[in-house]
Amino acid sequence: MEITVNGQPHIVPEGTTVAALLETLDVKTHYVAVERNLEIVPRAQYAEHVLCGGDQLEVVTLVGGGVRSPES
């Protein structure tokens, strides 16, 4: 089935979960947020959240920062 991830089409097998998709994309689940059809998928539900054909997903990697060191 076809889904869209970050604006790019992807073909995945029927029954693919968010967790399986992230594994296929080699994305570590600890520092990402996943939005499916404009709704955030809770991290605790990645393994049970089954994707459907036509789903639109955004996978956002979280990056820390914002504190400047005294040397900067």
Describe the structure.
It is a single chain. This protein is mostly beta strands and 72 residues long. The protein has one domain (2-61): Ubiquitin-like (UB roll). It has one helix at residues 18-24; strands at 2-5, 8-11, 32-36, 39-41, 56-61. A 5-stranded mixed β-sheet has the order 2-1-5-3-4, with no helix packed on it. Strand 3 and strand 4 form a beta hairpin.
Number of domains: 1
Overall 3D geometry?
Answer: elongated
How would you write the strand order of the largest sheet?
Answer: 2-1-5-3-4
Report the major sheet.
Answer: 5 strands, mixed
The residue ranges in which pLDDT falls below 50 over 5 or more consecutive positions are: none
How many β-strand runs?
A: 5
Q: Classify the fold: give the CATH topology.
A: Ubiquitin-like (UB roll)
Cα end-to-end separation: 49 Å
| Helical segment count | 1
CATH architecture: Roll
> Can you identify the CATH class?
Alpha Beta
Mean pLDDT: 92
Helix content: under 10%
Short account of what is shown:
The chain is mainly β. The protein has one helix and five strands.
Outline the fold blueprint.
Blueprint (H helix, E strand, L loop, with lengths): L1 E4 L2 E4 L6 H7 L7 E5 L2 E3 L14 E6 L11
Parallel strand pairs: 1-5
Antiparallel strand pairs: 1-2, 3-4, 3-5
List keywords for this structure.
72 residues, Ubiquitin-like (UB roll), five-stranded mixed sheet, 1 helix, elongated
